[in-house]
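The data are set out underneath:

___
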Amino acid sequence: MKKIKKAIIPAAGMGTRFLPATKAMPKEMLPIVDRPTIDYIVEEAIKSGIEDIIIVTGKGKRAIEDHFDHNFELEESLKNKEKFDLLEKVNATSDVEIHYIRQKEAKGLGHAVWVARKFIGDDPFAVLLGDDIVRAETPGLKQLIEQYEETGSSIVGVQQVSEDETDRYGIVDPGEKEGRRYQVNKFVEKPAKGTAPSNLAIMGRYVFTPEIFDYLGKHEIGAGGEIQLTDAIQKLNEIQNVFAYDFAGKRFDVGEKMGFVKTTIDFALENPEMKDELYEYLIQKVDELKLETK
């Protein structure tokens, strides 16, 4: 069985939820404290054993390439000033080969993954979306890779969401369960409220066999008038097992404003340089709000 060594990170979306900030800055470069969001995604891939990443970009995404490129002036300056801790942070993702390809038309997530097909070839591969950051003892993607090595089948990462959120996600109709792994009867993209077969939502981590490209290549239009990855997963599931795995770890939703703000606060409270002052500030704000509501 071939090992999972390649990953696709789709990063071509326009980031309309974060306008006007994303008019000139890719949403993937919005910082969580002092690191851009995509940095956490690449870090998870590296810790999961990925050696080659292709980032699917679009117009106005050059900042992503610049971020992962070497900045020799900056690195030399940090060396001369003996700021080795900062140098280590700057080079944290240098242990992986990063490639780029542009999605010339915004046709949806399924199309963005299909664009990278020649890079993947006939190898099994991973996909990581940037809307979810996962903190776990064993990286979320690595948990899926371990399941692939056990089953030889495609694996989709899921976690439970509240019933009133199921219309925002791809949802699985689960079958037989073994540990945290489910057989899947059906994958449904953003079911209408009240129609979801479960509350197990796809959370932006996938491991696929290359046969997924056979269905993505049909360019069938799905929900929202786009080529949906979930639709292709369902087609693949009809000819070979595609499992769902309820991966362990805390998931941070950075795909919408409130989730992004909460994530920033949580990460800042973990930062030893900031946590005490931020905690005092938050307590002060809570007290002020209490006074205002009296």
User: Anything to note?
Assistant: The first helix runs from residue 37 to 47. The chain is about 35% helix and 25% strand. The chain has a mean pLDDT of 87.
